């Protein structure tokens, strides 16, 4: 437990928001829960979980149960709680906290959310509450529901053989560092932390 906290502090930079993107056909709830708990343990504030079939989102209670179980087993946290948000859903669960916030996303939170935001903006223009010249990056960010309250991901860990993020938040990952790993199944903490070290060592030029 102490090692994880020290690991996080030892990195030159720690991502504020990590996206965990699974491109494999068979998602593992236990392994994804481990990744989420490790993110929490090293001090990452925001975590997004995504698979292109929406399996984790449809079965979010199963994923939350596994996260809760592993938090108790691995971290031994007290009973402080935080809200786990589900994008584009009204429901919310409570699980034990390491001051992190989690969203479970599916493809509907990507391109479909951008289309919905554009439609909402057009409706505001039609109602004369906005003009077409008001549209900019910040306005569109505010209209997107999938990451409301979340910063853009600093780092995406993509798992699986597919050389694509398969629709994960296309608007938000313009400047995101993407690291590919063979699989999330049976992934070790060492593999996870090695990816964080790689991110900490990379020089981001912001398109320059």
UniProtKB/TrEMBL annotation:
GO terms under biological process: angiogenesis; cell differentiation; lipid metabolic process; regulation of intracellular cholesterol transport
Coiled-coil segments on the chain, per record: none
Pathway membership, UniProt: Lipid metabolism; Protein modification; protein glycosylation
Cofactor dependence: Mg(2+)
Catalysed reaction, written as an equation: n isopentenyl diphosphate + (2E,6E)-farnesyl diphosphate = a di-trans,poly-cis-polyprenyl diphosphate + n diphosphate
Keyword Transmembrane helix in record: yes
Membrane topology: Multi-pass membrane protein
One Pfam family cited in the UniProt record for this chain: Prenyltransf
Molecular function GO labels: ditrans,polycis-polyprenyl diphosphate synthase [(2E,6E)-farnesyl diphosphate specific] activity
Source domain of life: Eukaryota
Cellular compartments per GO CC: dehydrodolichyl diphosphate synthase complex; endoplasmic reticulum membrane
Task of the protein: With DHDDS, forms the dehydrodolichyl diphosphate synthase (DDS) complex, an essential component of the dolichol monophosphate (Dol-P) biosynthetic machinery. Both subunits contribute to enzymatic activity, i.e. condensation of multiple copies of isopentenyl pyrophosphate (IPP) to farnesyl pyrophosphate (FPP) to produce dehydrodolichyl diphosphate (Dedol-PP), a precursor of dolichol phosphate which is utilized as a sugar carrier in protein glycosylation in the endoplasmic reticulum (ER). Synthesizes long-chain polyprenols, mostly of C95 and C100 chain length.
Protein name, entry field: Dehydrodolichyl diphosphate synthase complex subunit NUS1
Taxonomic source organism: Nothoprocta pentlandii
Upper classification of the organism: Eukaryota, Metazoa, Chordata, Craniata, Vertebrata
Gene behind this protein: Nus1
């Amino acid at each position: 437990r102490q090692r994880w906290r020290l690991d996080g502090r030892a990195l030159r930079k720690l991502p504020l928001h990590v996206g965990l993107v699974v491109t494999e056909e068979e998602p593992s709830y236990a392994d994804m829960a481990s990744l989420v708990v490790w993110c929490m343990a090293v001090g990452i504030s925001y975590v997004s979980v995504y698979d292109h079939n929406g399996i984790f989102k449809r079965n979010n209670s199963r994923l939350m149960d596994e996260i809760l179980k592993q938090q108790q087993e691995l971290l031994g946290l007290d009973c402080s709680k935080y809200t786990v948000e589900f994008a584009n859903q009204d429901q919310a669960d409570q699980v034990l906290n390491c001051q992190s916030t989690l969203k479970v996303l599916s493809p509907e939170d990507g391109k479909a959310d951008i289309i919905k935001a554009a439609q909402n903006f057009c409706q505001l223009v039609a109602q004369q509450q906005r003009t077409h010249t008001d549209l900019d990056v910040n306005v569109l960010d505010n209209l997107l529901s999938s990451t409301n309250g979340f910063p853009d991901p600093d780092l995406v860990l993509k798992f699986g053989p597919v050389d694509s993020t398969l629709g994960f938040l296309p608007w938000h990952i313009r400047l995101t560092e993407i690291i590919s790993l063979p699989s999330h199944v049976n992934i070790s903490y060492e593999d996870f932390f090695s990816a964080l070290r790689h991110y900490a060592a990379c020089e981001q030029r912001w398109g320059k």
